[in-house]
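U., I forgot to send this yesterday:
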Amino acid sequence: MKIETLLANLTQHSGIKDAYGATHLPIYNTATFDYKRQQDSDFLYDYSRTDNPTRNALETIFAKAENGFGCICTNTGIRAIALLFETVLQSGDTVLVEKDCYGGTYRLLHILFEKNNIKAFYADFTREDEVEQLLKEHAIKLVLCESPTNPGLKIVDIAKIASLSKKYGSVFAVDNSMATFASQKPLDLGADFSVFSATKYVSGHGSVVAGALVAKEAHWYEKLHYYANAYGSAQAPFDVFLVSLGLPSLVYRMQAQEQSARVLAEQLLTFAEVKSVKFPGLVTHPQYELAKRQMKIIPAVLTVDFEDAYIAEAVVKNTKLFGEKVSFGTADSRVELPAKMSHATYSEEDLEKIGLTKATVRFSVGLENVNDLVEDVQQAVTTLVGKVY
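Result:
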């Protein structure tokens, strides 16, 4: 089944049983369930922290979308990452992480090191030799990467990293927040887990925080479910409903946003004040061919390096249609200085390692008319430098 068909009618494909034939996920907003009234059911619900029909329906959709065995929906994206760590790792274990990772993951790993003696090594996952060397030298329990990375927008060859992880007996997880299952399916490429923040493209409207963790195999799913229940990671039914509202339009939103992002990227390249534009949909991107092969849709995120921090900050402040907001993947366009916002937890030394400076700006392109977005960036630069584009 194609992804568009799966997402178009959630009740039909989620397995949810609703007595009234609801055409969208009904909200079972209850803490507990009466056993006596479920005697004809093939599954008994007792407490919504453990299982809830609304949440289970969305988990079924996500598991099918990712071609996994099972899924756990969590109350935030970072909670899904934390659940992955809690399920796979024990005190003293070692993790290998793409060095250009989400700031929240970076912060969480530092907390785990301080509290649970979890050691993390960081590598450039576009250099498979560097990854393999670390796998050889250390007993790596978990390998974790994002692709595309955020905000560097590097494309990791998921199949190759999966093969290396398997070779050295490591569990492999991919943060699929930016590409989503509409674009790529890490489990099909060899990963053991696909984790994502549904706050972003998956919901698409910026009104809910949410996460999901999909396991490829049954034994991992059973552990995920056990720990999710034990730690209280469950997503509330109403938040599940909010996430579900964005699913039928996911593919079409991302396709439209990709087209606009390419137009904006090409326009930015003409600005004398711009040093570089990173967008995997440009032929100048180092992993352009891999991006085309691995992803069906290029996420509409641009990372732009301006000549200096003053120009970068002024562009962020002067744009009118790009709200200065963290996160990405929503219908509204956004702009931020990662060093001050999404990656503020990084040390200056680590920011330098991933090529992030105070002159780096991240654009998330929304669903506005692309001509309006281009004009907005043009006027922002014109206001600053007095040059008409």
